[in-house]
Write a sequence for this structure.
């Protein structure tokens, strides 16, 4: 469940309770951080409902704030939050999509990532995620891939920049396994993979990655990401522009057959 800001309601309530208990004791965030052995920035994010706290964090905060087990009792509900709060709306829409088309510029789309590749991507997250959180997010990302084999089958299309296929994320062995996985995905009848060759001097995708989705109600949406956050685009005219842009990107990319041959060749070089 999410509030109007897209945050998890469970995380938001936990954060507000923690803050209320801390302020009742006249304790600052910095002082609480010193008592529990965690950073002040983490305390701040948890109180804002922006970060899922680890069980150890909850236990220490409960003791430091004299909550008598109230905060610990909320731990099972916090574990239900499988995705960052800002990403939950997208995941819900993606899981029910009739069609999805994506253009990737830096890393592969999460629906195409192997476990090892996903773990390497998430391990590079800044600010750094702890090991438990990384494994939590890897599992959640792999679960999203149920969409690929869902019935009725959605229509899926991915355009990938060639340099994404050349960057050895996770190491050469991980990249080779990832490329072979892409070939397996490309063999699916409901899924198309195209590569935008680096040799292409100009194309319509210079504004960055994008994802287009169609809901069961025939509603068409777009989702765009950037350094400072992400957003859904719902206004018809704006979605239309992105659909037009994606159509040109697909036309400028290699065909699915030529893309498969390139991916196979890159895998053979590793």
């Amino acid at each position: 469940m999410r509030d109007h800001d897209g945050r998890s309601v469970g995380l938001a309530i936990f954060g507000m309770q923690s803050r209320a208990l801390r302020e009742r004791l006249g304790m600052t965030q910095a002082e609480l951080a010193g008592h529990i052995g965690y950073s002040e920035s983490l305390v701040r994010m948890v109180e804002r409902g922006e970060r899922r706290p680890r069980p150890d964090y909850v236990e220490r905060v409960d003791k430091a704030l004299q909550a008598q087990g109230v905060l610990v009792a909320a731990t099972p509900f916090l574990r239900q939050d499988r995705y960052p709060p800002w990403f939950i709306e997208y995941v819900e829409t993606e899981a029910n999509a009739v069609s999805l088309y994506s253009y990737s510029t830096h890393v592969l789309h999460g629906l195409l990532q192997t476990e090892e590749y996903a773990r390497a991507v998430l391990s590079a997250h800044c600010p750094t995620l702890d090991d438990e959180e990384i494994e939590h997010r890897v599992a959640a990302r792999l679960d999203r891939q149920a969409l690929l084999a869902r019935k009725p089958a959605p229509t899926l299309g991915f355009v990938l920049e060639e340099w994404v296929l050349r960057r050895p994320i996770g190491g050469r062995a991980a990249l080779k396994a990832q490329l072979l996985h892409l070939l397996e995905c490309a063999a699916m009848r409901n899924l198309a993979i195209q590569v935008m060759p680096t040799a292409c001097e100009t194309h319509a995708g210079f504004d960055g990655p994008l994802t287009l989705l169609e809901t069961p109600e025939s509603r068409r949406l777009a989702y765009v990401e950037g350094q400072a956050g992400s957003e859904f685009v719902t206004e018809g005219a704006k979605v239309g522009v992105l659909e037009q842009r994606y159509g040109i990107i697909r036309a400028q990319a290699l065909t699915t057959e030529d893309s498969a041959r390139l991916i196979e060749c890159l895998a053979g070089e590793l």
